Amino acid sequence: MVASKEKALVVVQLSGGNDYLNTLVPYGDDEYYDFRKTIHIEQENVLKIDDMYGFNPDMHAIKRLYDEGKVAVINGIGYPTPNRSHFRSMDIWHTALPDEIGTEGWLGRVIRDLDPKSENVLTGVNFGRGLPRALAVRGVPVASVGNLENYGLFTDIADESTRELALRAFSHMYGAVQGKDPVMDFLGQTGSDALKGADILRTAPAKYSSTIEYAANPLAQNMKSIAQVFLADLGTKVFYTQHGSFDTHSGELVTHSKLWNEVSSSIGDFYDDLREHGREDEVIILVFSEFGRRIKDNGSGTDHGSGGVAFVIGGDVKGGLYGQYPSLKEADQLEGDLHYNNDFRSTYSTVVERWFGLDSVPIVNGTFEQFDFIDK
Questions:
Q1: Fold (topology level) of 8-147+215-364
Q2: What is the largest CA-CA distance in the chain?
Q3: Comparing C-alpha atoms, which of 15, 203, 198, 184 is closest to residue 91?
Q4: pLDDT for 57-116, tens place per residue?
Q5: Per-domain residue ranges for the chain?
Q6: Residues in CB range of 23: below 8 A, 6 or more apart
Q7: 8 A C-beta contact, residue 324 and residue 343
Q8: Is 371 left (phi over 0), alpha (psi -120 to 50) or beta?
Q9: Which residue in 283, 280, 273, 328 sits closest to 305, CA to CA?
């Protein structure tokens, strides 16, 4: 009998508001060049998909995967009554609640459903500083890792027996506070989970072997760390990382190109790493940003807008264009922005139900039409 494959999700957050028009370029639409007098991609440089659309010229790896049928492009993604504040819009994406302030992250709920008894403190792992709100749910352990190579507790203590004593003291300190009151219980459990997860994660790099050479930028190194942890079979189902800033009010052409070169090549290397190990069908990657940019440029960059693009990438993904590219016609614009035409929770619902086999309604706060970029 063939063993059932693992299923994991990697979320890559493009922080700052990625410019949709210069990512999936509508090079066949004259209005793009009419509105984007300065901040545009020349037709001859676009990585063409068809006679109308193509990828940014620095997205070679994603274009390669698209040509292999492994990239679903979600056009016109967003939500009703768009908010142009970075913080509020990202909060909406993280909690899946556009109309109220949420207290739980959608991925935290996914982790809770995947591991209801919190038996594995590494079901969810974030690579980067802090803990994204998408992963935050009370009682759901999530490890947040800066540098996997140096991750752990008291790793600067060279003598192993001395480190063991320090770890034991740490364990007693946090174990002793539990049972006092709810706050102390929370702190005690958090400390115990950190202790348990840290030493397990430290084992991942030693188990890893690959011919893929990742770049030196932070996202590439985080994607390498994600590959190391996934391939170490530690039971992690949800990975999170972010890159930016995509807040390109000025100097956009240079900055945006550099950022997409880093994102695209990092994802390409990660996919190739999984493929080298025969496990590319066990992971999907969701790439999103909190909003798009204005249709008209400001001469040097673009300002906060609405209506964006997301990507779902993986061996089990049915690639292609999903949703409609929003009209650039002035009469169809939303106060100078692109109109969204599909709710981001449709993409979330598709991932939750068709990839993880969970009930999406309580996770994304409602019932939404699903795409077919993943076979049930």
A1: Alkaline Phosphatase, subunit A (3.40.720)
A2: 71
A3: 15
A4: 999 999 999 999 999 999 999 999 999 899 999 999 999 999 889 889 999 999 999 999
A5: 8-147+215-364, 152-201
A6: 55, 56, 59, 260, 309
A7: no
A8: beta
A9: 328
